[in-house]
Give the backbone structure.
Amino acid sequence: MNARGSRRWFLGLLGWGGAIALAGWGEHTGAIETVAIEADPAIEQGRQAYRAGRYAEAIALWQPAAARAEQRADRSLIILLAAYLAWAQLQAGDPNQAAAAVARGQAQRTGTIGPALEARLWGAIGAVAAAQGDWSAAAAAYDRAADRYRLANDPVGELASQLDQASVWQGAGSTRRALERLQALAATWLEPPQELAEAEVRALGLHRLAITLAWAGDRDRALAVVQEAASELPAARLTLARLVAEMAIAAPSPEQQAELAEQAIVYYDSLAQAPDQSLQRSALVSWLALAIARPNSETAALIDRTLAAARHWTGGRSAIAQQLAVTQSLLSHASWPDAGRSLIEQAREQARQLGDRPLLALAEQQWGAAVARQGRWEAAAQATNQAILILEPMQRPEWSYQALWQLGQIETRRANGAGAIAAYGAAALAADQARQGLTGLTLRLPELPITGPRDWLDRTEPLYRQQMGALLASANFDHWQLAGQQLQGLQLQRIENVLQCRLDRPTPQELQDLARSTVGERVATVVMAVTESVNDPGQWSIDTVVRWPEAGSAGGEAVRQHRQPVARAELRALLDRLVANLADVSEEQLVRRDGKQLYRWTIAPYRSVLAAAGVTLLALVLDPNLRNIPIDALFDGQRYLVESFAVAIAPDVKLAAASDRARSGPVLLAGLAQGRSNLPALPLVPQQLTKLQQLLGGVVLLDDRFTQRALESKLVNEPISILHLATHGQFSSDRRDTFLQTWDQRLDADRLDQVLSQRQARRPEPLDLLAMSACQTAKGDRYGALGMAGMAVRAGARSLISALWKIPADNTPDQLFEAFYRAWLGGASKARALQQAKVAMLRDRAAGRSGPHFWGGFVLIGDWR
């Protein structure tokens, strides 16, 4: 099993849904439970089993109790048990039975029932709808539940339903909307609570807000919020410890990592002494995961301590899940202790006795991973397939994708290429489904993970890279094409992380149609994927697939693929050097050296056949690791690639329909000459905008006329075709490091979204070109260029031209953009026009701006025509 599938997924097995409804909190809900217990003692026995995680036992107790209630025609008990059974069935991994249970409860709503009881039923309906991915129905159900809890004077239930509704919005893809709702709720808790119950409610809400902030990638704010909740809520203290541990692993410097790790250990050590046994275990499990991720001299002792304790853990499902979380962490450790196998066997037997299918599947999967470490591939495949069979009818892709991924790795090691491709394909499909659906479910209980979209992709990215490796190792063109699709999906997920929304990816056919419809150019599409070796995670490959129209053939195409093995560390170091040296005007020789190496690995194998076929333009589908590198600045030993080919980065999303107004539509030119917000002046901006207005026409917003309101008004109220911005801006894969400077304020990612989403909501026509002459990607951000692509998506632009690094404050952008617009207005494609502008600079040695530092940073993303 890949080590990145850490403990978090297994903690998710501890359950979600029905936590509050079965806790007996609140005066009115407590009265309902009292009546139920008096009516049938089996109901309370089932509640005790449920709280202990023995869901099969709870179902076995409640089903006969429900039958007895039906015999007595006791509508209240029928409804209550329907809700109970729905939550238990969901925990047991059977959403169909859960749906049947709530249907039985709804059938009894023929007359008046108490608001607290009705609230429970609506909560169960919402939970079932969320499990099925019906976000609209789930949101409506939780809204009804909150209203009923309000009538029942149950603030805890009301808050829980409101928080669940926020989770549903996140599940539907709107993390931003979920955060807005949670922050609005938090605004009502500014005053210190007067009563203990109010303090508990406030802590519960703050804890959920912290988890959502962490999910959205804002760990700093999440840390501040969870610290408030930690004084009242023990589970929040555990989240605080886990959050600090996550920050320790992700910290940029060894010193910061060590400091944060030590802080997390202090928290874990304290929690491991807590009176709450479940909290003790969870703290120890999380502590072990941190120790294995950051091994030191005390790691071995902690492993022994945890294993010794875990063998004696009892208490139903929670204890088994925690045992398996221990063994999962150990599976990623270099030295696998024999005691780990015996703990898996113990957990597997306990799960079988409980009849708990998710935990049994997890135990089988871990057993497969354990025997795979011994090279027993047949036994490993058998156990893993058993886990897949158990999970299949449960329709829980967030669980099944890891078992399928493990099977793909095993089949690869068995040299079963077809089996590996099939397993990886199923795993990738399940991972995509999980990413779409898990967002709304991860907030249900404090025990659940704080992992957000960015972390989710970091964990699953090796799956896609291994899948692409298996596909590209095949001799089948369809497999190569699928690998290209997966690469586009991988980079689209990272753009979605920036925008915190979901996007439609383009299809290979759309890319080919765009290539064939390019007038005056012969276009080759080039897919460059970085794939990962299963047998050696330190070994990567750059796989390049080139597809081009054959010369002299009507509609005929040729396709070739090349694989270049390279050590992961070597490739990372080369790319980091290129990024750093391209941004340094004095390092052209080093740029040529490393650019030549990357050229040999990628373009060189096809150079002669592309030239023979008359190819003039390369449309690139680039691995996220390569997006910060201008491919046309690669060096072949004699000249730069830009001297031979026009280059563009293929569209990241489905493009809006093309229009015939691209070169003639209304133009908006905006920029700053004066320094603002501690940013330096750009004294040549007035000259640049004046020249461009003479070429393009349009309206100029300069300095104090370039305000947020003015920009928004022009974009929303006028059919702008070209938007050219000459102002400071930075684009990052982290929303917090993304901004655009106007006269009156710095527009951060959220404000940019507001401005640009207004245009998309009100204007039917797309923005044909967005050009930015003084913007750049965030320094040190490996995926910064994807943040730039996110800007184009925000604006609804068909094409984007901007710079990867800070260009000197001379007239370089002025010269380049003037040449670009002249060529494009003259009929050249955008890619050809940009190439001509770059080559003109490259060959103007007298101007002193011929090196790639000056022209290489400008890249074209999207429609290159």
Observations:
- Residues 1-31, 438-450 have pLDDT under 50 and may be disordered.
- DSSP finds 35 helices and 15 strands in the chain.
